[in-house]
Specification:
This protein has about 325 residues and is an alpha/beta fold. It folds into two domains: about 5-155, inorganic pyrophosphatase (n-terminal core); about 210-329, Diaminopimelate Epimerase, Chain A, domain 1. Helix content is about 40%, strand content about 20%. The chain has 13 helices and twelve strands. Helix 2 (about 30-45) runs antiparallel to helix 6 (about 155-170).
Length: about 325
């Protein structure tokens, strides 16, 4: 479904003070989309503040060199959000559970509420929804908005949008990629994005703790369902002994998908402070992991999805593996 960019522009015409947010444990699509949308809004003369529930993961701090992105409760309060802004925009999610404590901030908010997203699943966030689940990344949606509105794409905007699109397409290897993806990417490169620099920041700048955690995840990988389903996990013990954090698990699941014959994979991440288990799903078969994740309060895309289940690790592993195998039959 295509987005009515004129309608979105009309919705942001009147408000002057915007707060932007995205999902917990933000990835590059979330962060890049926030930063790029903030830049576009400022070109329109708007005041913009980006506030997330979670801090920016250490390995992704390069995307925000000025430290513009604030964290709720540390840099700004819910009360300040209620009193300081007249528009609230969510990008790259449309699920309450993915907003963390920013969900309560949005529920309390009395101004204009807008959502820009590309995920299949959604909740009613009480705002005007602008969604295209066929789009490869929310960063691509922000790019399309910039082109539709005749906005200037600076080198800084081009870089964060390139990063958003490149990562959410698995560096252009996912089925969501089309010829128009490369046309957009070419435009962003012409505007100043440097692919080698982005790749270096993402994949050639690893902390040893992250590398050691990746080794544990891969060494604990198992294959079931006649070799078609791979799964692995990262436990609290793994984090304690490696010094890594849950955000260091990002992209690890894709390595398990490299095993010959594997059609789907699940990565279980035991979160600290009894916050439950984050399950990431991947599929390269007819298995719709978005539908599977929805059974456990999550969502996402047909080939990539996630869910947060607030139960003990062992119970979550058994429950989700059973459901996945059932769906694969």
């Amino acid at each position: 479904m295509s987005i009515d960019w004129a309608a979105l522009k009309a919705a942001i015409e009147v408000p002057q003070r915007f707060v932007l947010t995205s999902h917990v444990r933000p990835d590059c699509d979330a962060l890049g989309s926030e930063l790029a949308m903030a830049a576009l809004l400022r070109q329109m003369g708007k005041d913009v503040t980006i506030v997330n529930d979670s801090e920016t993961p250490q390995h992704l701090e390069f995307i925000d060199p000025e430290g513009e992105i604030k964290q709720l409760g540390k840099d700004i309060s819910r009360e300040e959000i209620q009193n300081g802004f007249d528009a609230f925009m969510v990008v790259d999610t449309s699920a309450w559970i993915q907003l963390g404590e920013m969900a309560e901030a949005m529920q309390e908010f009395r101004g204009v509420k807008l959502v820009l997203d590309h995920h299949v699943s959604q909740d009613d966030l009480g705002g005007e929804m602008f969604k295209d689940p066929k789009c490869e990344a929310t960063g691509r949606l922000v790019y399309d908005a910039a082109k539709a509105w005749g906005m200037t794409i600076t080198k800084e905007v081009a870089t964060v949008l390139f990063t958003a699109i490149a990562t959410d397409t698995g560096w252009f290897r996912f089925p969501s990629v089309s010829g128009s993806t490369y046309q957009a990417i070419g435009d962003l490169v012409d505007a100043g994005a440097v692919p080698s620099e982005v790749y270096g920041n993402l994949f050639e700048n690893e902390r040893l703790e992250r590398v050691n955690l990746r080794g544990r995840i891969l060494s604990s990988a198992k294959i079931i369902h006649d070799g078609k389903l791979a799964y692995s996990m990262a436990t609290q013990q793994d984090f304690a002994e490696t010094g890594a954090t849950p955000s260091d698990t990002e992209d690890a699941i894709n390595r398990t998908m490299a095993v010959t014959g594997v059609e789907a994979a699940i990565l279980f991440v035991e979160l600290p402070n009894g916050d439950g288990v984050k399950a990431s799903f991947r599929s390269r078969s007819s298995l719709d992991v978005a539908r599977l994740a929805q059974q456990f309060g999550g969502g996402g895309h047909v080939a990539a999805a996630g869910a947060l289940v607030k139960k003990p690790l062992g119970e979550v592993v058994s429950m989700l593996l059973e459901a996945t195998e059932r769906a694969m039959r």
